[in-house]
Specification:
It is built from two helices and eight strands. It is mainly beta. It starts with a strand and ends in a 10-residue tail after the last strand.
Length: 117
């Protein structure tokens, strides 16, 4: 049996841009991708704290250190610049693996997309 578990979460990211004229995805600052242990093209779930929208997309690399969090394509309709979102990735694992697994949680300041310690 496999269990789908939270692998990583970027908490309180602020949307910096929304680009409807793109094929789709979420552009993330490469520092955020690394901090959360994400991979380019990895499927993620996104939750918008401002309006309750939930959707899935995939990660594309944004400029390192830029703080960019941009929703592209149809997902751009589900956010506005300034909205606070949560980006989550999941992994399949056995119950035994899940017993000892701790997800990576990246807490951001909710303003500049910088990590909070």
């Amino acid at each position: 049996m496999w269990i789908e578990m939270l692998k990583s979460k970027i908490h309180r990211a602020v949307v910096t841009d929304a680009n409807l004229n793109y094929k789709g995805s979420i552009t993330l600052d490469e520092d955020l991708i690394d901090a959360a242990g994400l991979r380019v093209h990895e499927k993620v779930s996104v939750v918008n704290n401002n309006n309750g929208e939930r959707f899935e997309t995939y990660v594309i690399r944004g400029e390192r250190g830029s703080g960019i969090v941009c929703l592209n394509g149809a997902a751009a309709r589900k956010v506005q610049v300034g909205d606070v979102i949560i980006v989550m990735s999941y992994a399949l694992m056995t119950p035994e693996e899940a017993d000892n697994f701790e997800p990576v949680i990246v807490n951001l300041d909710g303003k500049t997309n910088r990590t909070v310690r």
